[in-house]
Amino acid sequence: MSPGLLIVLALLLPTIAILFIVLSKRRPNLREAFTLLFASVLFVVVCTMVPRVIDGDRPSIVLGEVMSGLIIAFEVEPLGMLFALIASSLWIVSTVYSIGYMRGNSEPRQTPFYVCFAMSIGSTMGIAFAGNLFTLFLFYEVLTLSTYPLVAHKGNDEARAGGRTYLGVLLFTSVVFLLPALVVTYSITGTLEFQPGGIIDADNGPVLIGMLSVLFIYGIGKAAIMPAHKWLPAAMVAPAPVSALLHAVAVVKAGVFSVVKVIVYIFGIDVFGIFSSTDWVSYVAGFTVLAASIIALGQDNLKRRLAYSTVSQLAYVVLAAAMATPLAIMGAALHIVSHAFGKITLFFAAGSIYTAAHKTEICQLNGIGWRMPITMSAFAIGAFSMIGLPPTVGFLGKWYILSAAITANDYLVLFVIFSSTLLNTAYFVPIVYSAFMRAEDVIPEHDHGEAPWPVVLALSFTASASLVLFFFPDVPLTLAKQLAWG
Amino acid sequence: MFEQYPVIVVMAPLLAAALCAVVRNERWCWILALSVSFTSLVGALSMLGYIDGEAGFISYALGGWIPPYGIEYRVDTLAVYILILVSFLATGVLFYGRQSVRAEIPENLQGWYYCMYLLCLCGLMGIAITGDAFNAFVFMEISSLSMYVLIALGRDRKALAAAYQYLIMGTVGATMYVIGVGLLYTVTGTLNLVDMGERLNPIMDTRAALAGMAFIIVGLSLKLALFPMHLWLPNAYAFAPSVTTAFLSATATKVSIYLLLRYLYSVFGFDFVANHSPVPAVMLVLSLLAIFVGSFTAIFQENVKRMLAYSSVAQIGYITLGIALANGAGLVGGLVHVFNHALMKGALFMLVGGIAFQIGTVRIEDMAGIGRKMPLTMLGFVTGALCMLGVPGTVGFVGKWYLAVGAIQNGWWWLVALIMISSLLVLVYMGRVVEIAYFRERPRGAVELSEPPKAMIVTSWVFILACIYFGIDTSFTLDTAESAVEILLAPKP
Q1: Cα(B154)–Cα(A386) distance, rounded to whole angstroms?
Q2: ipTM strictly over 0.90?
Q3: Which one of A33, A284, A467, B258 is most buried, by most CB atoms within 10 A?
Q4: What's this model's pTM, rounded to 2 decimal places?
């Protein structure tokens, strides 16, 4: 099959899945079977593109021109390939997880849930394969809109308030900053295409480029750079599978992915690095890393602590990308991968605890490790990956970011990474410690064990993936190298 | 036959209106009205093809009196763009609205309703097609007078007051317009718009010409509901029958905007208006006020039709913003938004009409929980809301993009920010309705609901899908708007 058609297929599969999900809404088993089937086919389709991209091929397709200069086009480049691989593989895993979670908690309105979920994955594919800023923007907005019903899923006041914040912040930033950024970029360059080396000329001067960097970095609200991070803790009212796949992987990664793409393919790392007017990005990202970690320390709600940890980890990627050296870009790409597998494991574990024990606060977790050994071991692996300890994949990303900082003699970045590693340790290790080493405060009324088996299966899989990728990182490494050095 | 098209698209509704007054049977009147508006649509579309191929415009001498002495019907790209818009919406709304008319209009008046509808269509088509200043006034009166009746037929007694208010304001506007035309006639001695433009060129800075221009601009601004002359609009939209609102919102103000553009650029001249007159500055202030005041007021409405009406005030602000920008991109943005806004507001009012048909009221509070009872209607409403918000891939995005590009061409960065911020207000007021419809439970004991009749749903959805289609394939709207702007900005001989 021609590579262009593969891209279209990757975009269409989630859409067709929606149709089948709706048609089989009265038969839950069939409905979930369809989701699984389409998720698997999507993963296969994405996988078939990998060898081509590694060989230096860039599959692309142009679907049409909306207005002069605004073209709907797709091109698979290394970073997009990586992102699509992560999202499509984790869609399968989190569908398995959802089956256990949604039924275990007898959540209402499951059909709309699976529909919106598929739509979110479809738009994530669109973001990953977007060949220009306009296409990226289009799917970026669709992703925001299709995840809103998932955030407000419970329908109570808290969920609606969370949904409002979520939609409000993400739409506000994208409309007030990102869209003008597109208009300005188009006005000065006449194109919005992603091109190796960037499209913005250094002749535009430090003021304009600095201003554009503000518009882009804050326009991409999904990257959750402070103070545009508020939507992420608000989104934690969603069911656990949503927090896991969307707010640890698809949505937030779409944010940092877009930031990296803009810096590499719109500004170009050379232009972005020349002027001191873009230095503010490092400062703000560094601040976000530390501030979010400190806030995470103070959160007792497990999901909220994970959310602030995500804010902090996303800022790592932006920090690395803002260094604008090939080594740092490589670190950013790898960190996207490692954080995806680590954080989804942590959220899966949080959801598993909620399903089995109905516990949401960290102070309730004393001794739970012996009741739910698999869940908490997976949690520990995820936590180690966040801290960056070998043999977890989290080590790789941090390693490259650190080497980039040392090569560039960037003491700010070094300081931020070292102190945040300490903070990560401080807010994750106590959870693992008390889960295994402390005695239970109250013996629960119902003697619970692990969550339903699909939940456990899913989180064991992602935890093992965090380990396996440390030993076999060939595919992500190759793609990241191609991204950084062309 | 073909050379008679310009007159047919106007005369057919007029004659059919007279026929309706005689027949008065609801069914036959509806069939007649529908087929006549469809004929007009076909006529307008075929003229588009002719213009594209030939000299750029069709000139039709009414009664054989050659222009500039007789009345000239002049069809260029801009005119045909408006003709298509009006006849398309008229056809769609008629197809949509038979059940709604039967439910909302007293039985003995239904025939008259279609009669008035056709008269109004005749007037609106006439304004778009005529090349004569006074003839435009006549058509304006035909459309306005019939529109007053169409509004006054609303179920709510407040519809009478709303129609009266519109009557007063509309008449003031029309009077202003005709005074302006009189002044221009005294200095040029002609009523033909092209001729008038040529003669005005050397004497544009005389006091009489300026006064004429001022009267015409104010008069038309009243008609097109430019802030702060919009006071008639919210009540008229809110209390009129659903079908009237859908038709009125999509066409009446748009045609007045068309006439204003004609005067500003074809008669007074782009160079004079843009560079030697305060029009862009005044339009800028008023448009921004319209956008922000209109949107803010919409947030606090209890009645969904009134809410959409205030949203129209704001959207008209976007269109006139194109005039304020006074450059190519800005004007294209404004002009393309004329078409796009007609589509999306028409669709939204149709959906609201369907909701009113089922639940009997238009209060936002009463829409609680209908998201699950009327999934198609509400899904359409959400899509329409996204169009209003200007999400890429919908019609709302196209105009906004061009306005932003136009603002940057003028170096007005702050305006880009304002345009973007203003679109978020749409999120606030539309979001409120969507939240109530989806997340609030239907009160206990409320009547069972289902989707409105098929014709209503299908037509509304055709318009909603058109909003998506024209947001992705913009070739028709943008090409037409671009060549229309070319005509408007062409230097006068």
Answers
A1: 65
A2: no
A3: B258
A4: 0.88
